[in-house]
Amino acid sequence: MSRFVLATVLTLGVGSPAVCQNSPRIPLSASPPAKLSAPISRDSLGKIELLKLRPEADAMGAVQRNAARDTLEAQRTLWLRRRPLSYLVRTYEISHCIHVRVGTLLRDQLRVRDTALVGRVPTSVPAEFAQRCERDFRVEDLFADVARALSDSSTAVRVLQYDPTYGFPRYYSLRPANGRAITILVESFAPAP
Description:
alpha+beta
């Protein structure tokens, strides 16, 4: 086996594609490291930095994301212990979604029994939510939405508040890497007979 290595230098010129140039064979046992014949220019450094971009970079930071996952699982456990057999819930998206309505301010609350949607109950809406978009989210859907966001390292969970009694996500704001922020609010929740 030969004790020589073929060294390859990648030259990045301004506005030109990368060009590989072969250099003479250098012995493996050479004491001092080989020096490049020409210094790396500032233009080349900028291009090298672009190549070093990490698409896997975490939008929240790994420590904060892991802590949020642990809290979500603890809150899910609380929900499973305390959840009512049947409940009414109404959820809104508070972001760029606007729903123009005229007339009576009635919107449906979802009636959920166990984990199944079993009906809709029209109820009055506070005026501040009259033009907001409803989301047909059961509590299970809220947990799944937050878990999905926490599993995507390119999405930042900016705000995450839980219901103090039942433990479900009551209010949260998500910022996907390639989109607008989305904020979800549980406007009303109550055990149902």
